[in-house]
Amino acid sequence: MRRIGSFLGEAWALTAPYWRSEQRWKARGLLAVVVALNLSLVGMSVILSYWNREFFNALQGKDAESFWALLLLGKWETESGPMPGFAWIAALYILIAVYQLYLRQALQIRWREWLTQRYLDRWLEGRAYYRIALTDPGTDNPDQRIAEDIRLFVDDTLALGLGLMRSVVSLVSFLFVLWGLSGAITVLGIEIPGYMVWVALIYAVVGTWLAHLVGRRLIGLNFNQQKVEADFRFALIRLRENAEGVALYGGEADEKRGLITRFRALMENWWGIMVATKRLTFFTAGYTQVAVVFPFIVASPRYFSGEIPLGGLTQTANAFGEVQGALSWFVDNYSRLTEWRATVKRLTGFHGAMETAHAATAAGDGVTAAAGDGRDLAIEDVTLRIPGGRTLIAGASASIAPGEAVLVAGPSGSGKSTLFRAIAGIWPFGSGRVRIPAGAHALFLPQRPYLPLGTLRRALCYPRDAAEFGDADVRAALADAGLGHLADRLDEEDSWSHRLSGGEQQRVALARALLLKPDWLFLDEATASLDPEGEQRFYTLLKERLPGATLVSIAHRPAVALYHDRALRVRDGALVAGTTQPQAT
């Protein structure tokens, strides 16, 4: 019970914020209409149960006039007064059913939109996505959790919640009908009134208990299935994104082995789900089939004794089915409940990882990067570690003045790129402070530039809005970077990170820097894919077009040193001042 309470608490924590949000009145109003339509369907089912009784009584009595009145547009009498014929009832039922579904779907997409926006905000805010990727490998496939798990959570929560509510209302509504139809039965000298109600209750309770025993293994299997499905899909996407590298290495065989391994994990878990579902379906199918004839068997003595007519027998069976079906909601939805539970656990785990990342950021874990009072960029007692705990740089201090061109040099793996990440304020492992001049506009160009999905114009202007830049400025930057031949494709959508070569991508990054005009420009081997002439052109353009900008570069080529005033070198875990002479790089 404690575990069930804990899980329901998690589900409520995911559900409640939307109904308390700025959209709460629209959401609550739409939900109220959907609930009202659901209740109307239950009311229609009650009316149809009485119609069913009169219809079969008319058949038994060979009453053609009543038969056609009940079937078409006539009226028929009940204890509550005249009722319309089946044609009117069916038309109204269809109308309510259609709009109940339509408005429920409208509520689904509104809720999903709000949840998606909320999760995207928290995932991107404070670079939580980056910290989670480094510190919490257990939070796998955040893309799936945002795109797929939110959809499943919203759909299943509404479907299960409304289904449960309808079952409760149906139970209450048909309980009185069944009680009145059941009569009494004498067992061991004790008269039991409404005995069909008690039979339905015992049948459903036993069925629910057995369904849980048979199907509880599905809970863990469904949780794991979502994980292995996402892992397999991620591996396929990664192969697509790195198609050229795989092709150059001739790594198809190894990629296939990796994909098959992941798919086998998916298949093994799926076979487990199949076996568990087979066992559960054996039980639920048998349970449902027995429920079809069970009320007839239990009520037949009263029919054969003449206490009730054929219509009374069918209405009793129908009411029993509604009561038993309402009580058996857990049995009928057990498989979906296990999937919903898995979805809730994945979303709460993701939410917890995001909150942990935000808490760590707020607590100042890692290197603190903040605006300083001075004009210089100050690195103060900075220690950098990697996730395994090994120290890359210890107690580093340095200062870079505005307008300087500084080369950061050192062996591969010594911590140069990690130092850039610390200056950017995104590295969570280490300590110390980086003070950046207040109001400084910094731009970081990594060795492999990021080109977002969409048009080439968007890639050039990233991360700013392309609408902020005139067409002439964009074309001029493209031409200056040596990509003038792409000017006619500025508004063409393509996978530019695959369409362009490594050198062309670095030229896009140069054009981006010329457009954005940063005060502080950090280049992490940003010219490594260019030929020497292209590299010379790159730095010459930066010097000419951004004369007041501070350049801080990581590079291994000796020629790059010629474009810098001085050097900072990472040596034996320390950051020391050095020369820009080629032989010292």
Number of strands: 16
Report helical residue fraction: 55-70%
User: How much β-strand is present in the residues?
Assistant: 5-15%
The main pleated sheet reads as: 6 strands, mixed
> What gross morphology would you assign?
elongated
**If you compute it from the alpha carbons, what radius of gyration comes out, rounded to the nearest whole angstrom?**
35 Å
What structural category do the secondary elements indicate?
Answer: alpha/beta
Structure annotation, total helices: 19
What's the end-to-end separation, in Å?
Answer: 66 Å
Mean pLDDT: 83
- Poorly predicted sequence stretches spanning 5 or more consecutive residues: none
Biggest sheet strand order reads: 10-13-14-8-15-16
What labels would you give this structure?
four-stranded mixed β-sheet, elongated, six-stranded mixed β-sheet
Describe this structure in words.
The chain has 585 residues and is α/β, with parallel strands linked by helices. It has 19 helices and 16 strands. The strands form five sheets. It has a six-stranded mixed β-sheet, sandwiched between helices. A four-stranded mixed β-sheet has the order 5-9-6-7, covered by helices on one side. A two-stranded antiparallel ribbon has the order 1-2. Helix 16 (471-480) packs across helix 18. The chain is elongated.
Short description:
By secondary structure, the chain is α/β, with parallel strands linked by helices. The protein is elongated.
Q: Mind sketching the topology for me?
A:
Elements: H1 2-19, H2 24-60, H3 64-71, E1 75-78, E2 81-84, H4 86-124, H5 128-135, H6 142-182, E3 184-187, E4 190-193, H7 195-215, H8 218-241, H9 243-249, H10 252-304, H11 310-327, H12 329-332, H13 334-362, E5 368-372, E6 377-385, E7 391-400, E8 405-409, H14 416-424, E9 430-437, E10 442-445, E11 454-455, H15 456-461, H16 471-480, E12 493-494, H17 496-499, H18 502-516, E13 520-524, H19 532-545, E14 550-554, E15 566-571, E16 574-578
Parallel strand pairs: 5-9, 8-14, 8-15, 10-13, 13-14
Antiparallel strand pairs: 1-2, 3-4, 6-7, 6-9, 11-12, 15-16
Helix pairs in contact: 1-13, 2-3, 2-4, 2-6, 2-11, 4-6, 5-13, 6-11, 6-13, 7-10, 7-11, 8-10, 8-13, 10-11, 16-18, 18-19
